[in-house]
Fold these 2 entries.
Entry 1:
Amino acid sequence: MSAISFRIEQRVSQGGARAGVLTTPHGAIQTPAFVPVGTKANVKGILPTALPALGAQVVLANTYHLYLQPGEQIVKDAGGLAKFMNWTGPTMTDSGGFQVFSLGAAFGKTISKFIKADAPQEEALVTFDESVASQHGQLAIIDDEGVSFTSHLDGSLHRFTPERSVEIQHALGADMFFAFDECTSPTAPYEYQREAMKRTHRWATRSLKAHRQNLEAGKQQALFGIVQGGRFEDLRRESAREIASLGFDGIGIGGSFSKEDMRGALQAAVSELPEELPKHFLGIGEPGDILEGVANGMDLFDCVAPTRIGRHGSIYTKRGVIHLKGEQYRSDFSPLDSELDVGLTMSHTSGFTKAYVAHLIRSGEMLGSIICSMHNMGFILNLVDGARQAILDGRFDTYRADFIRDYYHG
């Protein structure tokens, strides 16, 4: 029996958008929902106790980082991730698979989850090779059994396998966690995307077996499998069928895309997945991409973007992102976003002006980054909460179209 349950409350008449309730051992999540990323058991710049007031229902932490620092045993001894960070709601952890991507094939390169269609192709590291392994700066080497990597903290050597990833995540104790996978570069060719997908499927089977062998963890934690396949629709379809057949508690859509191919790859995967399972779109935080995911049946989203851009003085507004270091904001005494409906989710930052926060950012004051981060988190949480209400009210298509018009073309 799964540690979680999922109930769909409302579907749009045409399309895949739906509103639901995901019930976990530590509370219910109204979906669709954005999941703030607390990489090291903290959402940067935001107190855990402030997150609920911004609209957060669940947080996600990073297995790789918590394994290295402070170590999963310390988190376990503290009573698990939630107690460790003084958070009372549901929690999630990733598998460390994205670090295989970011420290391996992407290390030292300007590659992200998305590329432009005409971006130059780069060769991806595919298997263990002694000559490559000895190169200075190469942090992660993938083989069929797992990944060997050196710590970005002190250079010490470590190894993750599907079984080890599950063991660590059992110790971290999140309500929901992800099977170990290989997240490929969006520039990787078809042949390697297929190879990595097959490896992810084998690792999914091993992750599931390791989870099921821990009967106590199975009562308290749910395991999500991850669909891979890059931007290729046939691979996404094949991966979705395989992952769906294994019996996971939920499904994650992982990997990387080109912006132009995201919709097709996502729709290809979703068409093969059981409707009754909760679906998480991993690493997606651009407002338009979130709404695209909602429109195609995604229930959960996570991304570091709201606090990452906030730390550098950029904020979301209804008319798009603005950069407060710009000269025009030195004497702009208007609210951070004068068009937002000031409700509970924005009340923490609604009294500050662009000029004040621009001054803090330019002065290197910590408070500037905190205000921007809180504003951005409230903005994204409010956007997704609004999408949920629009689904319930039968007006999601209008809600989405209005937001896209103002945000990208306003």
Entry 2:
Amino acid sequence: MTSTSTKKKTAKGLTYAEAGVDIDAGDKVVDLIKPALRRTHTQRVMGQHGAFAGMFRLDFNETLFKRNYRDPVLVACTDGVGTKVKIAADRGILDTVGIDCVAMNVNDLIVQGAEPLFFLDYLGLSRVDPPETAAIIEGVAKGCEIAGCSLIGGECAEMPDIYEPGDFDIAGFAVGVVELARAVDPARVEPGDILIGLASSGVHSNGYSLVRRIVDDAGLDLDKVYPETGDERPLIEVLLEPTRIYAKPIVKLLSSYKVKKVVSGMAHITGGGLPGNLDRALHDGVDAVVDLDSWEIPPLFSFLQEQGGVDLDEMYRVFNMGVGYVLIVRPTFADSVVTKLRRYGEEPFVLGQIARGKGKVRFK
């Protein structure tokens, strides 16, 4: 009698990796970015690397680190980098957009008078390539170091059905704190206050849909050096110059005036340019009068305008035109503020002044 085996052959089942998501690659990234995250941590960061959520102490019991917030207000914001990431992804330059992501958030945060505390990032991409993904996140960590905040967590989402191979997007979330009595309030802006501008490092992270259209329509070579930009680097490097982070000098400035509130308003100049951002720092009874002769527009903007045939009004509406941040200060303290900002490494310039009006930005 012949016996028949009842053992059945088991077919290999479909795996997550075959569906396009590599868990092992994600774990590898977590290990690769650990040193970068640690560099941003202070004694106020709690918990272990890779935990489900980050922990941050607002106050210390230890005398050395005691903050003594009497009436703390948490300030939070979120933002991304926009289509600047498309240029970075297409050219495989991945170590700068993380700095942009931090900048776009903390520069908004400090407008309220807040000190940045911690940051979290979100990265969505087609496929996790550990070295490339780590390079992006290390850029975020670098931005946090510049800003003086801690990178305490984030999310890396591998979604091949959403993103084309090589594409990715990055966004972030920042939290800061300000004493209620020291929070910036547009109601405090008065006629006679002085506008002080801080230079941008280029286009920053707004208007890149227009920049990319200009590059395509004009047939510009991203690998070529265009002297008209005022830069000796290839155009790709000029366009991917990271957004300036103003956090440390602004926090130092605000903390240097312990009693008097010499800064009555601030604005981060992003999409919408000076007209669309400076007005957010005003109330309905005043206008910001900007002197267009008070600073020299960087050659890069003139180059983009000429190559794209863009109207000057549109340029001011889309780009920062060389002004990345604006402070509104009491006139008797304007010279003091300028001196301090220079000491902190900035190159401030008087941009104009506040006049009676209707909450608008006027050019003269």
